[in-house]
Protein backbone atom coordinates (compact mmCIF):
# COMPACT_ATOMS: atom_id res chain seq x y z
CA UNK A 1 0.00 0.00 0.00
CA UNK A 2 1.30 3.44 -0.92
CA UNK A 3 1.45 5.79 2.05
CA UNK A 4 0.61 9.46 1.68
CA UNK A 5 3.54 11.78 2.16
CA UNK A 6 3.35 15.15 3.84
CA UNK A 7 5.60 17.63 2.06
CA UNK A 8 6.33 20.87 3.85
CA UNK A 9 6.59 23.92 1.62
CA UNK A 10 10.09 25.25 1.15
CA UNK A 11 10.36 28.68 2.76
CA UNK A 12 11.25 31.56 0.47
CA UNK A 13 14.58 32.94 1.62
CA UNK A 14 14.40 36.44 0.16
CA UNK A 15 12.20 38.97 -1.58
CA UNK A 16 13.36 37.96 -5.05
CA UNK A 17 12.44 34.36 -4.32
CA UNK A 18 9.00 35.46 -3.18
CA UNK A 19 8.50 37.40 -6.39
CA UNK A 20 9.54 34.43 -8.51
CA UNK A 21 7.23 32.15 -6.51
CA UNK A 22 4.22 34.28 -7.50
CA UNK A 23 5.24 34.72 -11.16
CA UNK A 24 2.82 32.79 -13.41
CA UNK A 25 4.49 29.90 -15.18
CA UNK A 26 4.69 30.33 -18.95
CA UNK A 27 2.08 28.45 -20.98
CA UNK A 28 3.26 29.36 -24.47
CA UNK A 29 6.96 29.98 -25.18
CA UNK A 30 8.15 31.16 -28.59
CA UNK A 31 11.91 31.29 -29.04
CA UNK A 32 13.99 32.67 -31.93
CA UNK A 33 11.21 32.20 -34.49
CA UNK A 34 11.80 33.15 -38.12
CA UNK A 35 9.59 32.79 -41.18
CA UNK A 36 10.81 33.37 -44.72
CA UNK A 37 9.13 33.14 -48.11
CA UNK A 38 12.06 32.91 -50.49
CA UNK A 39 14.09 36.09 -49.98
CA UNK A 40 11.29 37.81 -48.05
CA UNK A 41 11.57 37.60 -44.25
CA UNK A 42 8.07 37.77 -42.77
CA UNK A 43 9.10 37.14 -39.13
CA UNK A 44 12.49 37.95 -37.69
CA UNK A 45 13.84 36.59 -34.40
CA UNK A 46 10.51 36.49 -32.53
CA UNK A 47 10.75 35.48 -28.86
CA UNK A 48 7.69 35.76 -26.62
CA UNK A 49 6.38 34.19 -23.41
CA UNK A 50 2.65 34.05 -22.63
CA UNK A 51 1.29 33.06 -19.21
CA UNK A 52 -1.63 30.71 -18.69
CA UNK A 53 -4.95 32.55 -18.82
CA UNK A 54 -3.55 35.72 -20.43
CA UNK A 55 -5.37 37.64 -23.15
CA UNK A 56 -2.74 38.77 -25.64
CA UNK A 57 -3.26 40.98 -28.70
CA UNK A 58 -0.92 40.94 -31.68
CA UNK A 59 -1.26 44.52 -32.96
CA UNK A 60 0.21 46.18 -36.01
CA UNK A 61 -0.45 47.48 -39.52
CA UNK A 62 -1.20 45.24 -42.49
CA UNK A 63 1.84 43.21 -43.50
CA UNK A 64 3.58 43.48 -40.12
CA UNK A 65 3.62 39.70 -39.56
CA UNK A 66 0.95 39.32 -36.87
CA UNK A 67 -1.22 36.86 -38.81
CA UNK A 68 1.87 34.94 -39.96
CA UNK A 69 2.88 34.52 -36.31
CA UNK A 70 -0.62 33.34 -35.38
CA UNK A 71 -0.56 30.80 -38.22
CA UNK A 72 2.83 29.51 -37.08
CA UNK A 73 1.45 28.97 -33.56
CA UNK A 74 -1.53 27.15 -35.06
CA UNK A 75 0.64 24.96 -37.30
CA UNK A 76 -1.13 26.28 -40.40
CA UNK A 77 2.12 27.74 -41.78
CA UNK A 78 5.23 26.27 -40.15
CA UNK A 79 8.06 28.59 -39.21
CA UNK A 80 11.39 28.44 -41.04
CA UNK A 81 13.33 28.36 -37.78
CA UNK A 82 12.61 28.51 -34.05
CA UNK A 83 10.70 26.63 -31.36
CA UNK A 84 7.20 26.82 -29.90
CA UNK A 85 6.37 25.20 -26.56
CA UNK A 86 2.79 24.90 -25.32
CA UNK A 87 2.43 23.69 -21.75
CA UNK A 88 6.08 22.48 -21.89
CA UNK A 89 5.22 20.38 -24.96
CA UNK A 90 7.27 21.07 -28.08
CA UNK A 91 4.73 21.68 -30.85
CA UNK A 92 7.17 23.32 -33.29
CA UNK A 93 6.74 20.76 -36.06
CA UNK A 94 3.39 19.22 -35.16
CA UNK A 95 0.59 19.43 -37.74
CA UNK A 96 -2.37 21.65 -36.87
CA UNK A 97 -4.56 18.62 -36.13
CA UNK A 98 -2.29 17.56 -33.26
CA UNK A 99 -2.15 20.96 -31.54
CA UNK A 100 -4.38 21.99 -28.65
CA UNK A 101 -6.24 25.11 -29.77
CA UNK A 102 -9.51 26.48 -31.07
CA UNK A 103 -9.53 29.17 -33.74
CA UNK A 104 -11.98 31.84 -34.89
CA UNK A 105 -11.47 33.47 -38.28
CA UNK A 106 -12.53 36.88 -39.55
CA UNK A 107 -14.87 35.21 -42.06
CA UNK A 108 -16.54 33.03 -39.36
CA UNK A 109 -15.92 29.89 -41.52
CA UNK A 110 -19.21 28.27 -40.45
CA UNK A 111 -20.56 25.38 -42.51
CA UNK A 112 -23.53 26.87 -44.40
CA UNK A 113 -25.25 23.50 -44.92
CA UNK A 114 -25.21 22.62 -41.19
CA UNK A 115 -27.48 23.99 -38.49
CA UNK A 116 -26.04 26.05 -35.66
CA UNK A 117 -26.17 23.03 -33.36
CA UNK A 118 -24.40 20.89 -35.96
CA UNK A 119 -21.72 23.54 -36.48
CA UNK A 120 -20.91 23.63 -32.78
CA UNK A 121 -21.04 19.84 -32.49
CA UNK A 122 -18.70 19.25 -35.43
CA UNK A 123 -15.46 19.22 -33.45
CA UNK A 124 -17.04 17.32 -30.57
CA UNK A 125 -18.18 14.52 -32.86
CA UNK A 126 -14.61 14.01 -34.03
CA UNK A 127 -13.60 13.26 -30.42
CA UNK A 128 -15.90 10.24 -30.30
CA UNK A 129 -18.01 11.51 -27.39
CA UNK A 130 -21.48 10.00 -26.80
CA UNK A 131 -24.36 11.83 -28.50
CA UNK A 132 -26.12 12.81 -25.24
CA UNK A 133 -22.90 14.36 -23.94
CA UNK A 134 -22.43 16.28 -27.21
CA UNK A 135 -26.03 17.54 -27.13
CA UNK A 136 -25.60 18.70 -23.53
CA UNK A 137 -22.36 20.50 -24.37
CA UNK A 138 -23.91 22.21 -27.41
CA UNK A 139 -26.84 23.44 -25.31
CA UNK A 140 -24.44 24.73 -22.67
CA UNK A 141 -22.41 26.65 -25.25
CA UNK A 142 -25.48 28.14 -26.93
CA UNK A 143 -26.62 29.40 -23.54
CA UNK A 144 -23.14 30.74 -22.83
CA UNK A 145 -23.16 32.92 -25.96
CA UNK A 146 -26.81 33.91 -25.48
CA UNK A 147 -28.23 32.10 -28.54
CA UNK A 148 -30.15 29.18 -27.07
CA UNK A 149 -33.13 29.78 -29.32
CA UNK A 150 -31.08 29.77 -32.53
CA UNK A 151 -29.82 26.17 -32.52
CA UNK A 152 -32.07 24.87 -35.33
CA UNK A 153 -31.30 27.75 -37.70
CA UNK A 154 -28.65 27.90 -40.40
CA UNK A 155 -25.77 30.45 -40.44
CA UNK A 156 -27.36 32.53 -43.23
CA UNK A 157 -30.35 33.17 -40.96
CA UNK A 158 -28.20 34.88 -38.32
CA UNK A 159 -26.65 38.35 -38.21
CA UNK A 160 -22.90 38.81 -38.49
CA UNK A 161 -22.54 39.31 -34.76
CA UNK A 162 -24.54 36.16 -34.03
CA UNK A 163 -22.47 34.14 -36.52
CA UNK A 164 -19.29 35.29 -34.81
CA UNK A 165 -20.66 34.15 -31.45
CA UNK A 166 -21.36 30.72 -32.94
CA UNK A 167 -17.84 30.56 -34.38
CA UNK A 168 -16.55 31.36 -30.90
CA UNK A 169 -18.75 28.67 -29.31
CA UNK A 170 -17.48 26.12 -31.82
CA UNK A 171 -13.86 27.07 -31.10
CA UNK A 172 -14.20 26.56 -27.34
CA UNK A 173 -16.43 23.47 -27.57
CA UNK A 174 -13.58 21.01 -26.96
CA UNK A 175 -12.16 23.15 -24.12
CA UNK A 176 -8.87 23.94 -25.89
CA UNK A 177 -5.82 25.08 -23.96
CA UNK A 178 -5.33 27.97 -26.40
CA UNK A 179 -7.87 30.17 -28.19
CA UNK A 180 -6.72 31.95 -31.37
CA UNK A 181 -8.75 34.85 -32.78
CA UNK A 182 -7.81 36.14 -36.24
CA UNK A 183 -9.33 39.64 -36.51
CA UNK A 184 -12.70 38.23 -35.37
CA UNK A 185 -14.51 41.57 -35.18
CA UNK A 186 -13.27 43.45 -38.24
CA UNK A 187 -16.21 42.43 -40.47
CA UNK A 188 -18.80 43.82 -38.02
CA UNK A 189 -20.23 47.32 -37.76
CA UNK A 190 -18.86 49.60 -35.05
CA UNK A 191 -21.65 49.25 -32.48
CA UNK A 192 -21.80 45.45 -32.71
CA UNK A 193 -18.01 45.29 -32.58
CA UNK A 194 -17.85 47.23 -29.32
CA UNK A 195 -20.59 45.09 -27.76
CA UNK A 196 -19.04 41.80 -28.88
CA UNK A 197 -15.55 42.65 -27.68
CA UNK A 198 -16.91 43.05 -24.15
CA UNK A 199 -18.68 39.70 -24.46
CA UNK A 200 -15.53 37.96 -25.70
CA UNK A 201 -13.45 39.43 -22.90
CA UNK A 202 -16.01 38.39 -20.26
CA UNK A 203 -16.20 34.88 -21.70
CA UNK A 204 -12.42 34.56 -21.78
CA UNK A 205 -12.22 35.63 -18.14
CA UNK A 206 -14.92 33.14 -17.19
CA UNK A 207 -13.21 30.24 -18.98
CA UNK A 208 -9.66 31.24 -18.05
CA UNK A 209 -8.45 30.13 -21.49
CA UNK A 210 -5.16 31.52 -22.79
CA UNK A 211 -6.13 33.71 -25.75
CA UNK A 212 -4.25 35.36 -28.61
CA UNK A 213 -6.09 37.83 -30.83
CA UNK A 214 -4.77 39.41 -34.02
CA UNK A 215 -6.02 42.93 -34.69
CA UNK A 216 -5.03 46.15 -36.42
CA UNK A 217 -7.50 48.15 -34.30
CA UNK A 218 -5.66 50.02 -31.54
CA UNK A 219 -8.83 50.74 -29.53
CA UNK A 220 -9.78 47.06 -29.66
CA UNK A 221 -6.37 45.99 -28.35
CA UNK A 222 -6.33 48.62 -25.60
CA UNK A 223 -9.81 47.61 -24.43
CA UNK A 224 -9.36 43.82 -24.48
CA UNK A 225 -5.75 42.81 -23.90
CA UNK A 226 -3.86 42.02 -20.72
CA UNK A 227 -0.73 42.63 -22.79
CA UNK A 228 -0.21 43.96 -26.30
CA UNK A 229 2.48 42.77 -28.70
CA UNK A 230 3.14 45.62 -31.15
CA UNK A 231 4.65 44.35 -34.40
CA UNK A 232 6.20 46.11 -37.40
CA UNK A 233 7.99 44.67 -40.43
CA UNK A 234 8.17 41.19 -38.92
CA UNK A 235 9.68 42.17 -35.56
CA UNK A 236 8.28 42.91 -32.12
CA UNK A 237 8.58 46.63 -31.33
CA UNK A 238 7.24 46.43 -27.76
CA UNK A 239 5.35 44.14 -25.39
CA UNK A 240 3.45 45.59 -22.45
CA UNK A 241 0.13 46.30 -20.79
CA UNK A 242 -2.23 48.69 -22.60
CA UNK A 243 -1.24 51.45 -20.17
CA UNK A 244 2.49 50.86 -20.71
CA UNK A 245 2.12 50.78 -24.48
CA UNK A 246 0.08 53.99 -24.56
CA UNK A 247 1.85 56.02 -21.88
CA UNK A 248 5.41 54.75 -22.26
CA UNK A 249 6.07 53.82 -25.90
CA UNK A 250 9.64 52.65 -26.43
CA UNK A 251 9.87 53.60 -30.09
CA UNK A 252 8.52 56.33 -32.33
CA UNK A 253 6.60 53.70 -34.32
CA UNK A 254 4.72 52.54 -31.20
CA UNK A 255 3.98 56.13 -30.15
CA UNK A 256 2.67 56.99 -33.60
CA UNK A 257 0.69 53.77 -34.17
CA UNK A 258 -1.09 53.73 -30.80
CA UNK A 259 -3.34 56.76 -30.70
CA UNK A 260 -2.84 60.25 -32.13
CA UNK A 261 0.41 62.21 -31.83
CA UNK A 262 1.91 65.60 -32.54
CA UNK A 263 5.51 65.30 -33.75
CA UNK A 264 8.08 68.06 -33.91
CA UNK A 265 11.76 68.10 -34.89
CA UNK A 266 13.90 69.25 -31.99
CA UNK A 267 17.40 69.56 -30.59
CA UNK A 268 18.43 68.57 -27.07
CA UNK A 269 19.65 71.44 -24.89
CA UNK A 270 21.46 71.22 -21.55
CA UNK A 271 19.57 71.06 -18.25
CA UNK A 272 16.52 69.00 -19.29
CA UNK A 273 15.30 71.10 -22.19
CA UNK A 274 14.83 70.77 -25.93
CA UNK A 275 14.58 73.35 -28.67
CA UNK A 276 11.47 73.34 -30.88
CA UNK A 277 10.98 76.17 -33.32
CA UNK A 278 13.72 78.26 -31.64
CA UNK A 279 12.01 78.02 -28.25
CA UNK A 280 13.07 75.94 -25.24
CA UNK A 281 10.73 73.40 -23.64
CA UNK A 282 11.27 71.38 -20.47
CA UNK A 283 11.18 67.60 -20.76
CA UNK A 284 12.97 64.44 -19.66
CA UNK A 285 16.18 64.20 -21.70
CA UNK A 286 17.75 61.14 -20.05
CA UNK A 287 19.54 58.99 -22.60
CA UNK A 288 20.27 61.93 -24.90
CA UNK A 289 23.27 64.25 -25.13
CA UNK A 290 23.26 67.99 -25.76
CA UNK A 291 22.82 68.83 -29.47
CA UNK A 292 21.25 65.44 -30.29
CA UNK A 293 18.61 65.80 -33.01
CA UNK A 294 15.33 64.23 -31.87
CA UNK A 295 11.64 63.91 -32.65
CA UNK A 296 9.49 65.32 -29.85
CA UNK A 297 6.06 63.74 -29.41
CA UNK A 298 3.01 64.82 -27.41
CA UNK A 299 -0.46 63.32 -27.60
CA UNK A 300 -3.44 65.64 -28.24
CA UNK A 301 -5.17 64.35 -25.10
CA UNK A 302 -2.21 65.39 -22.92
CA UNK A 303 -2.34 69.07 -23.88
CA UNK A 304 -3.95 71.17 -21.14
CA UNK A 305 -5.97 74.32 -21.94
CA UNK A 306 -5.60 77.29 -19.58
CA UNK A 307 -7.72 79.98 -21.15
CA UNK A 308 -6.48 83.35 -22.32
CA UNK A 309 -3.91 84.21 -19.63
CA UNK A 310 -2.71 81.47 -17.30
CA UNK A 311 0.16 83.69 -16.13
CA UNK A 312 -2.37 86.01 -14.51
CA UNK A 313 -3.90 83.33 -12.28
CA UNK A 314 -3.84 84.30 -8.62
CA UNK A 315 -0.90 82.72 -6.79
CA UNK A 316 -3.26 81.44 -4.10
CA UNK A 317 -5.24 79.52 -6.69
CA UNK A 318 -2.18 78.28 -8.57
CA UNK A 319 1.12 78.47 -6.64
CA UNK A 320 3.33 77.89 -9.66
CA UNK A 321 3.08 78.92 -13.30
CA UNK A 322 2.70 75.85 -15.53
CA UNK A 323 5.80 74.79 -17.46
CA UNK A 324 5.79 74.78 -21.25
CA UNK A 325 2.95 77.29 -21.42
CA UNK A 326 2.45 78.72 -24.91
CA UNK A 327 0.10 81.13 -26.66
CA UNK A 328 -1.96 79.49 -29.38
CA UNK A 329 -4.67 80.50 -31.82
CA UNK A 330 -7.61 78.15 -32.37
CA UNK A 331 -7.81 77.58 -36.14
CA UNK A 332 -10.30 74.68 -36.35
CA UNK A 333 -12.63 72.83 -34.01
CA UNK A 334 -14.21 69.42 -34.66
CA UNK A 335 -16.84 68.03 -32.32
CA UNK A 336 -16.31 64.29 -31.71
CA UNK A 337 -18.94 63.65 -29.06
CA UNK A 338 -16.97 63.27 -25.85
CA UNK A 339 -14.37 65.91 -26.76
CA UNK A 340 -13.44 68.67 -29.19
CA UNK A 341 -10.46 68.09 -31.49
CA UNK A 342 -8.85 71.47 -32.03
CA UNK A 343 -6.11 72.59 -34.38
CA UNK A 344 -3.93 75.32 -33.00
CA UNK A 345 -1.06 77.44 -34.30
CA UNK A 346 1.60 78.67 -31.90
CA UNK A 347 4.48 81.07 -32.61
CA UNK A 348 6.73 79.20 -30.14
CA UNK A 349 6.34 76.07 -32.24
CA UNK A 350 7.42 77.89 -35.39
CA UNK A 351 3.83 78.26 -36.60
CA UNK A 352 3.50 74.47 -36.82
CA UNK A 353 0.02 73.07 -36.31
CA UNK A 354 -0.72 71.54 -32.91
CA UNK A 355 -3.66 69.15 -32.47
CA UNK A 356 -5.24 69.14 -29.00
CA UNK A 357 -8.23 67.24 -27.61
CA UNK A 358 -10.23 69.30 -25.11
CA UNK A 359 -13.12 68.01 -23.03
CA UNK A 360 -16.57 69.44 -23.64
CA UNK A 361 -16.53 70.93 -20.14
CA UNK A 362 -13.15 72.62 -20.68
CA UNK A 363 -14.32 74.17 -23.96
CA UNK A 364 -17.47 75.49 -22.26
CA UNK A 365 -15.68 76.69 -19.10
CA UNK A 366 -12.90 78.51 -20.96
CA UNK A 367 -15.13 79.73 -23.82
CA UNK A 368 -12.82 78.20 -26.41
CA UNK A 369 -13.94 78.92 -29.97
CA UNK A 370 -12.51 79.22 -33.46
CA UNK A 371 -10.35 82.35 -33.76
CA UNK A 372 -9.73 82.64 -30.02
CA UNK A 373 -6.23 83.05 -28.62
CA UNK A 374 -5.67 80.83 -25.58
CA UNK A 375 -2.77 79.43 -23.60
CA UNK A 376 -2.06 75.73 -23.51
CA UNK A 377 0.36 73.69 -21.47
CA UNK A 378 2.48 70.83 -22.83
CA UNK A 379 3.23 68.87 -19.64
CA UNK A 380 6.92 68.18 -19.16
CA UNK A 381 6.37 64.49 -18.37
CA UNK A 382 4.20 63.95 -21.47
CA UNK A 383 6.67 65.46 -23.96
CA UNK A 384 8.46 62.34 -25.18
CA UNK A 385 11.71 62.21 -27.13
CA UNK A 386 12.86 59.72 -29.75
CA UNK A 387 16.00 59.63 -31.90
CA UNK A 388 15.41 61.26 -35.27
CA UNK A 389 14.70 58.63 -37.91
CA UNK A 390 13.97 55.91 -35.30
UniProtKB/TrEMBL annotation:
Any idea where the ABC transporter domain is? 28-258
Highest taxon in the source lineage: Bacteria
**PROSITE patterns in the record:** ABC_TRANSPORTER_1, ABC_TRANSPORTER_2
GO MF annotation terms: ATP binding; ATP hydrolysis activity
Keywords of the record, alphabetical order, are: ATP-binding, Cell inner membrane, Cell membrane, Membrane, Nucleotide-binding, Translocase, Transport
Q: Which GO terms describe its biological process?
A: quaternary ammonium group transport
- Residues of the region (Disordered) are 1-21
InterPro entries assigned:
AAA+_ATPase, ABC_SmlMolc_Importer, ABC_transporter-like_ATP-bd, ABC_transporter-like_CS, AminoethylPonate_ABC_PhnT2, Mo/tungstate-bd_C_term_dom, P-loop_NTPase
This protein's record includes keyword Electron transport:
no
Gene3D superfamilies xrefs: 2.40.50.100, P-loop containing nucleotide triphosphate hydrolases (3.40.50.300)
Q: Which family does it belong to?
A: Belongs to the ABC transporter superfamily.
Q: Which PANTHER family match?
A: PUTRESCINE TRANSPORT ATP-BINDING PROTEIN POTG (PTHR42781:SF5), SPERMIDINE/PUTRESCINE IMPORT ATP-BINDING PROTEIN POTA (PTHR42781)
Identify this protein by name: Putative 2-aminoethylphosphonate ABC transporter ATP-binding protein
From the broadest rank down, the organism's phylogenetic lineage runs: Bacteria, Pseudomonadati, Pseudomonadota, Alphaproteobacteria, Hyphomicrobiales
Amino acid sequence: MRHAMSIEPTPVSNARGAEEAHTPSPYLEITDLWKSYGDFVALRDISLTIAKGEFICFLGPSGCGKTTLLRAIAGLDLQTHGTILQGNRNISTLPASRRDYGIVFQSYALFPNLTIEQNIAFGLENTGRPKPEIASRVAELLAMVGLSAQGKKYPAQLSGGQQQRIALARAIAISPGLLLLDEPLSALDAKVRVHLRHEIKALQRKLGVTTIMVTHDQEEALAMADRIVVMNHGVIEQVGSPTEIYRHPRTLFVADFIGETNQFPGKVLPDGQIEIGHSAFCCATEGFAADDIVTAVVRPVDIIPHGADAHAVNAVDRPATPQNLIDAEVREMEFLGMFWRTRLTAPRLGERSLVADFSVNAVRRLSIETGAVIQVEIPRERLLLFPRGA
